[in-house]
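Ticket #4471: structure export looks truncated?
Reporter: QA, pipeline team
Priority: medium

Steps to reproduce: submit the single chain below to the structure queue and open the exported record.
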Amino acid sequence: MLLLALLCAFFFLGCSAAKTEPEADTDPVVARYRDEVLNKFLRPKIIEPLQRAIDEDLRLQTHLHLKVADKNPFRAGVCSFGRLLSLPPLLFLGVSIDLKSECSDFLDRTFYNTNTVALFDWKTYEEMRQLGRTKYGLPLADAYLPSGTLEQGLDVLEVMRNIHVFVGKYHYNMNSQFFVEHQSESKTLNTIGISTLANSIRTHGTGIMNTTVNFTYQYLRTMFDSFSQFLFDEHIKSPLMKEIKFFHDLQVESGAKQSKNGPVVKSFYQSYPFDRADRFNKEIRKLGTTTVEGGSSLTFLDRFRILVTQIGNAMGYIRMVRSGGLLAVANAIKYVPVLSLKTDVTKFGSLVEKDHLSGESVAAGQNVDLSIENLTQSFVGQGFEYFKLLVDVFAPEFQSADSTHHHLSNFYIIIPALTLNYVEYLLTAKDRVIKKSSQLRLLRRRLCHRHRLHPQAARPDRPV
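Actual output as written to the record:
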């Protein structure tokens, strides 16, 4: 009550002083008195405590599920700021003081500054703004900051610009649909999942999906060129033709044995001998090795295995972009009641025109209808069939009679040797990990032994 009485007194003083406004600007005594009252009493005693109290109340209400404070009104009491915020602007010696505007500016500035530091808390601050508008009637402005989450991870644009680096540094898990970094200079490894791509697509919009897929397809075209050159090389093509002849002879021999014992049954699952794959692998190794960064030596079959892996990673990334886009669209359209394209859904634009609203309202309604239609087509139609598009682009060139890519049909015969090469790579990597761990254990034992013999030698704070 005392606070309201003081505010009313300032209000009547302001009304009586409004007549002497030019006098207040020229009289230094009046100006000094006005600044002293405003800066030493009104702001530190009324405005700033009110701003902090409203900010604290909004934060506690928003984080009520965390049980951060006791909100029982019978024990903690209830503070109502509605009467203060409903007061009209106070005019004091030529200065207008609006409590609602002061609190709104303070909250807008605080929410914006804190949200820029942690973009993943955008939803929390949006809830606080909505609560401030509903509970206190404050005209809070939107921050217009890009939304983010804790699972944002690598951005889809960053991956698109460095797709050649991404497919070489990350490994793809086809069952769980996520990428994990091969090795890192830090103690942690980055991962990319469907939710990560969905959050990134929500930030940039669904239009980024087509751009990403087209950019990846351009990269795949260069990879297929290297793939074709490897199989066309005479040092690789000649052994492959030899293995194909052996495999066909094995099929004929298997069919002859079946004809002696009964009717001939054509089998599409002929076994390929392990020793032939091992021999082919050794023959490729004789062609020479190349030294890469890190000092390791790679055979031509190792490089081809890496090339096939990178092609698979690029196609896996396209698959994850499609899944992430569907997840983002599903989250965006979950409040739309009708998703069927065949159902005649009531349009916002027609309703706005029926009510004879302004042209801007009609345009806004049409934009809403277009957005809902695009989201519905993407979700109900299960997005775009990117793999089918890839097949439609490359299949006619490979299947034409006058095509120069007939040597690509020999790829199937190299798969056994390629699989054996991959198994050898896994065993080598496992031995390397075991060796590294044994070296770490040996180093730890030596450090412990040194610490037992010389306790002061192992202390980092030992004086020199």
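Status: closed, not a bug. The export was complete when the record was re-opened. Leaving a note from the reviewer for reference: The radius of gyration is 36 Å.
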